[in-house]
Amino acid sequence: MKIGMSTSSHGRLLRRPEVYFTCEEALKACAQGGFDVINLDFIEYSKPGQPMREPGWEDWCIRQRKTADLLGLEVRYAHAPFYTWQADEPEGDSYYEELIRRSIRGAGILGAGQIVFHPGSVSEGDGYSRERSMARNIRFYRRYGELCARERITPCIENMMPAFEGQRKFASSVEELLELHSILGDEFGICWDLGHAHMAGIDQCAAIHTLGKRLTMLHLSDNFGEHDDHLAPFFGTIHWAPIMKALRDTGFSGDLLFENFAFFDGLPEELRTPAMKLCYDIGVYLRSLME
Q1: DSSP states of 78-135 as a string?
Q2: Which three-class secondary structure state does DSSP give residue 43?
Q3: Most Cβ neighbours (<10 Å): which of 19, 38, 117, 237?
Q4: How far is residue 209's CA from residue 221's CA, in Å, rounded to a whole number?
Q5: Cα-flanking dihedrals φ and ψ of residue 74, to 5°?
Q6: Mean pLDDT, range 267-275, rounded to an integer
Q7: pTM of model > 0.90
Q8: What is the DSSP string of 135-155?
């Protein structure tokens, strides 16, 4: 088991949006922090004006692979971009679907073994429609699965936060997540986001035991149970020791992958490397709780 970090940790500063770090700079920052496993976050690099929207996006992915190799980093994971579903076939979806297609191909170029997708939620009238959300997720994930199979990548379904801007989110419960996974099949993995689960008030140890071997990927971040704060572990109210024991008891064989970009938000550049090293040390400590 290795300790991994997402490139989003060294991306755009939320409080100073004019400060932007390239993917190459993010990879170097992760390497300096001691990490050797990387999650390439295509969310950031698929925004307007970013490389994945440009004609040379495949060459850009090749350059990131070369940079990672030179730094001794292994890009094991990727995160596909996401967008809000407003209807069964909302206008403009085709372009965002193209960005997802590019991220799958890019993950293949980078050598990632798993790529995570956020499930979407569909409304009906003034409220959330579980039936329509399930049907559309099945259709979209099957399409993603076909694309991932060509790249020899495992597509992963992520559990979601309970609500966003007042709208209930699909797959924020273990039951919905498992139902979708059972329909799609074992060629799909499950990414368990501990921050999302904390917001949903889920018994995380029970959930981990229920997911069992279907759990192939983790997103580690902390919060106070109300907002998706993306803090480093122990800086929120998640109880980490029993969670690590549950992961050990179920034989989780993946990596401890940090997704805590907000922890770095606002830090001067001089403090970002020490903060990155602190996160790595936290990861080592969490791993020791599984021994």
Answers
A1: EE-------SSS-TTHHHHHHHHHHHHHHHHHHT-SEEEEPPP--EETTEE-HHHHHH
A2: helix
A3: 38
A4: 20
A5: -110, 120
A6: 88
A7: yes
A8: HHHHHHHHHHHHHHHHHT-EE
94-121 tens-digit pLDDT: 788 899 999 999 999 999 999 999 998 8
Nearest C-alpha neighbor of 100 from the set 111, 122, 116: 116
Which SS3 state, helix, strand or coil, does residue 163 take?
Answer: strand
* Contact of 237 with 279, CB cutoff 8 Å: no
Q: Which of 92-106, 131-145, 201-215 has the highest mean pLDDT?
A: 201-215
pLDDT at 153: 98
How far CA 116 is from CA of 29, 81, 93, in Å, comes to 23, 9, 19
**177 exposed, middle or buried (CB, 10 Å; 0-12, 13-18, 19+)?**
buried
Q: Output the 3-class SS for 196-264.
A: HHHHCCCCHHHHHHHHHHHEEEEEECECCCCCCCCECCCCCCCCHHHHHHHHHHCCCCCCEEECCHHHH
CATH superfamily, region 3-288: Divalent-metal-dependent TIM barrel enzymes (3.20.20.150)
Q: 124-128, 169-173, 191-195: which has the minimum mean pLDDT?
A: 124-128
Output the average pLDDT for the chain.
91
Separation between Cα atoms, residue 3 and residue 280, nearest integer Å:
7
Q: Which residue has the tokens 């993946």?
A: 254
Report the percentage of the chain scoring pLDDT > 90.
76
Q: Where do the domains of the chain lie?
A: 3-288
| Cα radius of gyration rounded to whole Å, the chain | 18
In whole angstroms, what is the distance from residue 269 CA to residue 279 CA?
Answer: 16
